[in-house]
User: Fold these one by one.
Assistant:
Number 1:
Amino acid sequence: MRTTRNRGLTAVAAGGFALALTLAACTPPPEDSPAGPGDDGDRDLAEGCEAFEQYGDLSGTSVSVYTSITAPEDQPHIDSYTEFERCTGADIVYDGSREFEAQLPVRVQAGNPPDIAYIPQPGLLQTIVRDFPDAVVPVGDLAESNVDEYYDPSWKEYGTVDGTYYATPLGANVKSFVWYSPDAFADAGYEIPETWDELLALSDQIVDDGGTPWCVGIESGDATGWPATDWLEDVMLRTAGPEVYDQWVDHEIPFNDPAVAEALAAVGEILKNEDYVNAGFGDVRSIASTPFTDAGFPILDGECWMHRQASFYAANWESADPDVQVGENGDVFAFYLPGATTDESPLLGGGEFVAAFDERPEVQAFQAFLTSPEWVNAKIPEHPDGGWVSANRGQDMELYASPIDRLSAELLADDDAVFRFDASDLMPGEVGSNSFWTEMVNWIANDKPDQDVLDDIEASWP
């Protein structure tokens, strides 16, 4: 998830922003590109707005955007719309809510949907499309042509429901990372583990040395539980392999299949091991009440050694200490969550998708803008300390200030990478953003047995 998922920082890198504007000014649309949604023929353009001519004159219009991305992580998004607003005349009205997953269906059912929604789970998109026919507007020609040009075809598949293309990609993230303190590791003589067995051996060594290796938190408002589903998904890729993972996602094997039980047991070797968790917060049960946004912070105090969380977690460190440096030689960095062997490098990731609930020209234009390299290259510099990544192949990789983000973007663009999208985000909403979350909370908070957890999730599959 997810999103949800707190992404971004409020600072602006002035030099990077200037470069983004230069890129926008120097990248006019091709002559044979589709006409913009608000195209009104020849008109005077403000300086540097050539790339925005395709959207037409949208003066006096507004577009409402509803998302799970809240303050302070919302500001980079808001700032990234500046040139679209300046060059088209449209006003983008941003509304972030931690209750997004629960409230979006309510708003749609009440006939009061936003113009645009950033949906962090393709499974939730499928549920909304099927439960509320005709509420979501199919993607327009300009946005679809951008996706065809700049994204791997799999991203289009994630936004397609029953053969109709409904949602375009927004941000992306790589989840297979473990955050740690390079200095603490060096002082203790610990080395980065390269296999799963080495990861467990390192955890045992930390315990033997008097430390607690892991700190974990899965609280996330109405979305509480999603970080635990990420643990199971990452381990499922490692114990069962990508083909069985796909079968699990598509329900070609049941949720309580032995392959899933094996993966959950492997997760339990860490998350339900009293010697391993939960440094800085309490016992195993404290994982359920610890906000995922804060869960890695004990690393800074030396109470915790490792925290498994996605690339976007880079944005959270500043909340603990504005002076925290993220990097290989900084206060915190991350290493790849290892596979069974050094030859196996599965990569779990996720992202948000942009769905439109109105076909007004300004709404269609804004959705298309969010698929463009101009938007991506304006958005990246809004994160000088990291925490946001795109899978857009038209992006400028040199704009990434964070080595974690640059590595993530390169991995996402690698055709040879064994990448799989977050399973719960692809599953039906009744499972992916409901029973899967709640049962993983029960597994942690109430010590619910593994098999009962898997059986109850399987029983909820529509």
Note: Residues 429-445 form the longest helix (17 residues).
Number 2:
Amino acid sequence: METQSTLTGSKPFDSTDFLVVSAKTFEDLRIGDVFRAPSRTLTDAHAAAFQTVSCDNHPVHYDAEWARKHGHTAPVVHGLQVLAFTAPGATLFPHYIGEVFVNFSEVSCQFLKEVHAGDTLYPALEITDLIPQGGTGVVVTAATVHNQHGDLVLSGQHKYILRTKNA
């Protein structure tokens, strides 16, 4: 017995067609497309979990007195943790590109302002360049993270390789 779609009633359900958004190809992407991640308010627990995973035990990240003594208002969230919020999987980007993803080839960034537990972060990726290369294409994005005050705390760039229609 075939089951029919509960939405249209016209065709059998196929889990490979169950997409969050309609997938695009490299050729469908446009400079200026923006892929946001949900905002996140960092807690001491987030910082402690990252410290455990990264094995970064510098006291600037957990010792409030040490941080104050060295000019910080509070322990500083790990920069790589802030960068992690720009991971493509933290946004809708992988859903838009579907099965054409080949790899995440490059990342760079500048840490512009300190981030502390209690800050809310707003990460985004914006396509700044699309470079066709035959069977693949390079998608270049600006990676940004703002805090709850509108301050840009991280600015960077990601590059991804996608298959093109010529692949």
Note: DSSP finds four helices and six strands in the chain.
Number 3:
Amino acid sequence: MNDSIGLIGLGSLGLPLAENILAAGHPLTVYNRTPHKAKPLGDKGATVAASASEVAQTCRYVITLLSDDAALKEVTLTDEFARNLGADGIHISMSTIAPQTARQLAEHHARFDARYVAAPIFGRPAAVAAKQAWVCVSGDAEAKEQVKPILSAIVAQGLYDFGDEPSTANVVKLAGNFMIGAAMEAMAEAMTVAEKNGVSRQALIDMFSSTMFASPIYKNYGTMIARQVYDENVGFRLPLGLKDMNLVLQMASEVKAPMPLAQLVQSRLVSALAKGRENWDWTGLAYGASEDAGTHS
């Protein structure tokens, strides 16, 4: 087995990641449950595998970027996948999943001497393409040291190590996504009350995102919320946002940590989906504040 990289999942983040891996000169094998998404990468030199287990058999490093826990378990929580990965193989899971799922995968892989590293990613597709995402890692110490240079070369402007417990990086990822959702709700409410008092939504966020709240979340998401155009430049769809908020509340319930603000964000997402907005970006949860105030168009 060589140092080739396998990538399972060619969605909005997986596709630019695959392009980066090829551009860096790594041998790449890809698999996607919807086969036609893999063809353009095959035309660019990637090997297109017929199954996830085939990827594990031919690649030392296997990255997964799948939409949810069920999809990840379906293709990697099998004896065949773990056996094919073997003692030299490392599964790098970049999906946003429940901490319990990360522990389950790490334990299952260990039965076959394969190693597991959690490496969930913070970044929209453009940030991934520009290798400007942030990545949290946790899991086997030796395996992490092997994959960190790879992650730095293909996707991350920064890596943060949260220890040897496989699930901790996913705890951080879910906590971060909750904070983003809460920030979007706060921006939506602030812009709505400002607008009803004669202040431009854009002027408000221009000031705050350049001063007290100078961060990509307020600057980039804030501009989308100010414009109230949520079905363009969709990087993370509303159903995935709801999936993540459900995971946040599940995680909180397991340790008896009340999260009333997370419940509010979850409710916004449910309401948006009930109104047929499945194809909106998850920033569209912010539209609920305008609807409640009677200022929506």
Note: The first strand starts at residue 5 and ends at 8.
Number 4:
Amino acid sequence: MRQRAPGDVYTREYPGLVRLAYVTTGSLAAAEDVVQDVFADWFRLDGTRRDEVREPAAYLRRAVLSRCTSWVRRRIVERKHAAVPALAPPSPDVPVQADIAAVRAALRHLAPRQRAAVFLRYYLDLPEAQIAAELACRPGTVKSLLHRSLATMKEVLGD
């Protein structure tokens, strides 16, 4: 028995997963690629295996976080061995409010795992236990990640 059609899950979850991947990687292009790859792999599962996934959203979030972690690690190695320094990201065409820009800048000061924890907690409003499952860590680690993230952001924001 099918719980949800894969196309419905894609339509519903894609935007949030891209936002999660963007917050984690800092690159919209990489975020879209990561999410597309995760969905492609999920669609390749035969119908029976895909139906065994009780919560597709949680399964897909975990897969996106895992791929984002790999992407960030690869970028760190690439930057370490690159002869030319990385270029600054292009400024957005649409002006944003000063507060939003300041928060985005503060998020860039966080490690990818901290950004993911902040996104899962304050954007998706997930409980600590579920964030721990998503990040494959203990709830106490989530509390620590969030505490340190907020402290860093306050320092950067000057609060």
Note: Residues 50 and 61 are 15 Å apart (CA to CA).
